[in-house]
Amino acid sequence: MRRLILAVLCLQLLAAPMPEPAKYVALTFDDGPSGRYTRRLLDGLEERNVKATFLLCGYRIQQYPDETTRILRDGHEVGCHGFSHKKMNDMSRRDIGAEIGNTLDLLPQGTKVFFLRPPGGCCSEAVRQVAEAKQLAILSWSVDPRDWATSDTASIEKNVLKSVSDGDIILLHDMTDSSVDAALEIVDKLQSQGFRFATVSQLAAMRGYRLQPGKVYTHFPRKKTGAAQP
Q1: In the predicted model, is pLDDT for residue 113 greater than 70?
Q2: Given 173, 174, 181, 219, the catalytic residue
Q3: Which of 51, 129, 186, 207 is 20 to 30 A from residue 41's alpha carbon, by CA?
């Protein structure tokens, strides 16, 4: 009888549906920090227990050091978005190096930075070479609602929700009320759909990607079993 009961239990376990693996995405915010907008965003993310990745400009760090400190204190990730926000694709390697180095020098000692996101996403071979020399991966994105070009919160939200999927990197900005409002609405909607949030480096790690300096990353999809390490 005991064996029969065990056999029935095993069959029930085999027949039970397997739980769906968690869906993860990474929120990224360019061009900041930016005073009250960044503070509002940080308040909202804290309320929702969500961590994000902020790609910071050096001149903005100089303008808003307290916001920079809070980003790090709240457990978010920071990356480099250049010092001046000028496009790097036509710059010399020396100028690209200065844009990156002058920005990183403003961060608290010991801050770990894994990513460079060139302004506008413009990446030349020189950008790639300098990033590699500075041990930075190049961070692009897979979802871009172009929030910088509109003040329509609903449109920004819709453009993300219609295309987002597991492993995506979402590009947003903490520069306007509409972008901040949309970001928090997106978090609420995606959480209700079972999505979870991670910083970009956390997402890469949980998916088994070893970040390579100078390589461009747009998203971190779940790997197939037995897939080779990139």
Answers
A1: yes
A2: 173
A3: 207
